[in-house]
Amino acid sequence: MAYKIGVVGDRDSVMPFKLFGFDVRYANTSKQVRETIESMAKQHFGVIFITEDASELAVETIERYKSEVTPAIILIPSHNGTKGIGLKAIQDNVERAVGQNIL
């Protein structure tokens, strides 16, 4: 089974991902972000990239999928720059896997 890759966030931040053939969805409200993640998960997306700004609108939904194999939800900076949320999540995962923060 080939998994799809999706990108969720504000229009300016996610529009360029269309060039790579990713399924791009615009979401600016908490409800839109949550419903988009749920919809992509049901459609068997393997990876969902979500802007840090949008991720703050759906923290509980994202947390629920952290223990699942798919979809992998990966935080990316918005066009306004990074808030460090995505990097912190990666550091936490590495620390949990290795036993210490090697980054």
| Cα Rg | 13 Å
Strand fraction: 15-25%
> What is the CATH C-level name?
Alpha Beta
Mean pLDDT: 85
H/E series: EHEHEHHEH
Give the tally of β-strands: 4
Q: Identify low-pLDDT runs.
A: none
Query: What is the domain total for the residues?
Result: 1
Secondary-structure-derived class: alpha/beta
Major sheet characteristics = 4 strands, parallel
What is the correct CATH architecture? 3-Layer(aba) Sandwich
Give the helix tally.
5
What is the straight-line distance between the termini? 33 Å
Instruction: Give the strand order of the largest sheet, numbering strands 1, 2, ... along the chain.
Output: 2-1-3-4
- CATH homology superfamily: ATPase, V1 complex, subunit F
User: How would you sum up the global shape?
Assistant: globular
Proportion of helical residues: 40-55%
Family: Belongs to the V-ATPase F subunit family.
GO molecular function: ATP binding; proton-transporting ATP synthase activity, rotational mechanism; proton-transporting ATPase activity, rotational mechanism
Organism: Enterococcus moraviensis ATCC BAA-383
InterPro entries: ATPase_V1-cplx_f_g_su, ATPase_V1-cplx_fsu_bac/arc, ATPase_V1_fsu_sf
